[in-house]
Amino acid sequence: MQAYRKTEMTVGVFVFIGLVAIAWLAIKVGQIGGIGASGYTLTANFKDAGGVRKGSDIMLAGVVIGRVDDVVLTDNDHATMILRINDGVEITEDAFASVRTKGIIGDRYIRISQGMEETPLEAGSEIEETESAINIEDLISKYIFSGKE
């Protein structure tokens, strides 16, 4: 009877450890509620988000260095993006953020270009130099109506 109880306890402990491991993995991979998220955040304001969504890539020199945490409308006239940058990547104070497209009709992402300064931005700082996406519809509209007045 004693050996049977010991076996049951051992199996119970392994099942409990397995459930905890699965829960931890789900939280870490899903980044639920910010749990499991690493890195630091920066903000950037754009006149036009241009289709950038939560989870879009942030690239520097063609390498993914983070993800967009959130995109919100601010003051009813511009989009504020919360950028989560991976640990170990330093963005300089005069960095330039722009909305770009992967390929002709690909996903939108944020491209960051480092500036000449060597001082890195601190967590929670703002990237002041931004460039919104090129709106193809606006360009076509300007071209069509450029000669008519």
UniProtKB/TrEMBL annotation:
<dbReference type="GO" id="GO:0005543">
    <property type="term" value="F:phospholipid binding"/>
</dbReference>
<feature type="transmembrane region" description="Helical">
    <location>
        <begin position="9"/>
        <end position="27"/>
    </location>
</feature>
<dbReference type="Pfam" id="PF02470">
    <property type="entry name" value="MlaD"/>
</dbReference>
<protein>
    <submittedName>
        <fullName>Phospholipid/cholesterol/gamma-HCH transport system substrate-binding protein</fullName>
    </submittedName>
</protein>
<feature type="domain" description="Mce/MlaD">
    <location>
        <begin position="39"/>
        <end position="115"/>
    </location>
</feature>
<dbReference type="InterPro" id="IPR030970">
    <property type="entry name" value="ABC_MlaD"/>
</dbReference>
<dbReference type="GO" id="GO:0005548">
    <property type="term" value="F:phospholipid transporter activity"/>
</dbReference>
<keyword id="KW-0812">Transmembrane</keyword>
<keyword id="KW-0472">Membrane</keyword>
<dbReference type="InterPro" id="IPR052336">
    <property type="entry name" value="MlaD_Phospholipid_Transporter"/>
</dbReference>
<dbReference type="InterPro" id="IPR003399">
    <property type="entry name" value="Mce/MlaD"/>
</dbReference>
<keyword id="KW-1133">Transmembrane helix</keyword>
